Amino acid sequence: MAQFQRPTLCCCRKVLTVPSKSCEGGQGLGQCRLVDIASASNFHCFKLRHFHLDLRLNFAVKEITGWQVLELVAIQPGVQTLVLDIHPSLLIHSIDCKVPGTTGAQDISPSLTYRVDPFTDYGSSLNISLPASVIRLHRAFQITVRYTTTDGPAIWWLDAELTCGQTRPLVFTQGHSVCNRSFFPCFDTPAVKSTYTATVRVPEGVTVLMSASRSAYSKQDRVFQFSMEYPVPAYLVALVAGDLQHVDIGPRSRVWAEPCILTCAVSKLGGSVERWLNVAEDLFGPYVWGRYDIVFLPPSFPIVAMENPCLTFIISSILESREFLLIDVIHEIAHGWFGNAVTNATWEEMWLSEGLATYAQRRITTEAYGEAFTCLETVFRLDALHRQMRLLGDNNPVSKLQVKFEPGINPSSLMNLFTYEKGFCFVSYLSQLCGNVKRFDSFLRAYIEQFKFSSVVAQDLLDFFLGFFPELKESCVAQREGLEFERWLNGCGPPLCEPDLSAGGVLTGPVQSLCDLWASEPPDPEAIANFNLSSWSTFQTVLFLDRLLDRSPLSHEVMGQLSRCYSAQLDEMNAEVRIRWLQIVVRNSFYPDLPRIRGFLHKHTSRMYTVPLYEDLCSGVMKCFAAEVFYQTQARLHPNLRRTLQQILFQTSALPTTTSVPSLLHPTPSSPSPTPGGQPGPADPPTTGTIALRDVNVSA
């Protein structure tokens, strides 16, 4: 995701409040603030009907060149300037304007005047002067922008040695939340949706994929054609190009990956994807995007997964853990309804995407795998939420569902567990008010049908909810004392209530019993021996290790006993399990298991595994060891991750990057310095504890 930097205040920035769904022509009932886009000053003056990209990928110089054609309609009179979001890494060559279907000189302006102004550290403002002779109210016109873009926050070039196969280079884009302004000029806000097409020219042997509903390929010309026939916001336009092959795994799904991992990826998913899609359709209505393909990306992919329509991006590192893979894919499937079809109009209400998608994910897993499994996964995530809450404090404003951030704050920095889990708890509460989960399923189907392909604010959802259940509106559930909707949205702290998870007791009970045995003085080895971790699921094991981690520091005697009981056993388990044991080792300075940390960091080069361990190593007494391992492995790290780890190693004393969250609402001179690749940089050390990266970002 995009990097957060201290903002540069400038006169061109505006804070705009517009009706929700204003760009889709709907009757939005709420209001949303748009402080993260330069185009907020006038995007509501235009209707973006469609755009086309014509791009050439040059791997040798790591550059994308080409042009973009935007088809616009002026919907307000007297507009003289078009403002688009771009980035300093995107170089404009020329801009022209024409009216499609006309040939008169008065309808063509071959070269428009434009100006690029600073906006924030994550973007710039492209101001285009429009010719009065061409721009008429309600008449379509086309703006063509010729440009070159290189290594902005959306575009990740991987040299061959950083790919899984280590034979050919690869490039991918990651637009969430406000990164795609470095990929192409746009209205970089979820409030604006449009269809798009693309033509992409590549060297021989390169396969290109995009988040599009249709595609075609001319082998002779080495040209790929794409079409997205459904309206999407800018952040959901995605591209990947490299040595990619595919296997069909269902009637509307295929898996894409580099050849060396394709067989593994297919074997882990099998026919499950079509099953999950069918369950989701039974719950929430038809899947509207046609295709649901998945592409597995190298460990340099900066997050776990991204819900690009028709083409989910997911990190290949997750293939080690079947249960985490299952949850992440189902979560991205749920976004097909919640986030992609119906989108939050402003990043200040990201929970409308993530909270609803998390609820939908758990409805799917309940139907597919039973209530106990879903409750276990939920307990695991809510544990992480409360861990984050203890570290940030009950009054931290980032714990609100409606976060108000100031101009210059990067919305990507507000990706945290509250948008997922507190949002999930609020949606679960709405479900409980209905008295029947099936009735709430019916509401969600109607909600999708009502707002499909538009962008909404929380008030749209809640008004539709109360209109769908008039008896609840009559009983004033929105004002129920202690559980007011307004308090859910704008109150700090943990969820006002949590769903009943007792059905998971058969799985969570043994975990807690074993934790209690290890907490006793001294631990009873005979009782402990009755528990066999190898018979547990991954989620049971990571829940156990997370709760042990919460009890740190542990005595050296207990650590020795834990190591004798579990170290060899955990070595055979997946990375999600092993990293938690290694964090326990680091936080308790248990030197006998340091070789396991070295081996893990030599094998795993993804952000989600390296950053938490380096943060823990550098916040304790093992900084020299961390530096030694870094120098041994840095050649296999993506440059963005390398710089992040260098900052952890050499510019911090006890700070994990994710603890800078509290400073994100109001920029100050002490705001974090930039960390490429999407994580906040270091700030002042926290007073207690550390936050592992997985405690903040689940997936996009």
UniProtKB/TrEMBL annotation:
Q: Where is the composition biased (Low complexity)?
A: 659-668
Residue ranges of every copy of the Peptidase M1 leukotriene A4 hydrolase/aminopeptidase C-terminal domain listed in the record: 506-649
SUPFAM superfamilies registered for this protein in UniProt: ARM repeat, Leukotriene A4 hydrolase N-terminal domain, Metalloproteases ('zincins'), catalytic domain
Cite the binding residues for Zn(2+): 331, 335, 354
Q: Which GO terms describe its molecular function?
A: metalloaminopeptidase activity; zinc ion binding
InterPro entries, from UniProt? Aminopeptidase_N-like_N (IPR045357), Aminopeptidase_N-like_N_sf (IPR042097), ARM-type_fold (IPR016024), LTA4H_cat (IPR049980), M1_LTA-4_hydro/amino_C_sf (IPR038502), M1_LTA4H (IPR034015), Peptidase_M1 (IPR001930), Peptidase_M1_C (IPR015211)
Q: Which UniProt keywords apply?
A: Hydrolase, Metal-binding, Metalloprotease, Protease, Zinc
Establish whether keyword Nucleus is in the entry: no
A Pfam family recorded for this sequence = Peptidase_M1_N
* Residue ranges, annotated region (Disordered): 659-700
UniProt key word Zinc: yes
**Cross-referenced CDD domains:** M1_LTA4H
Q: Where is the active site?
A: 332, 420
Q: Name one GO biological process term.
A: proteolysis
Record field: transmembrane: none
Cofactor binding annotation: Binds 1 zinc ion per subunit.
**Per its Swiss-Prot or TrEMBL entry, what cofactor is needed?**
Zn(2+)
Source species, domain of life: Eukaryota
Annotated Pro residues bias:
669-685
PANTHER family attached to this UniProt entry = AMINOPEPTIDASE RNPEPL1, LEUKOTRIENE A-4 HYDROLASE
Q: Which family does it belong to?
A: Belongs to the peptidase M1 family.
Task: Write down what this protein is called.
Answer: Peptidase M1 leukotriene A4 hydrolase/aminopeptidase C-terminal domain-containing protein
Per the UniProt record, the lineage of the source organism begins with: Eukaryota, Metazoa, Chordata, Craniata, Vertebrata
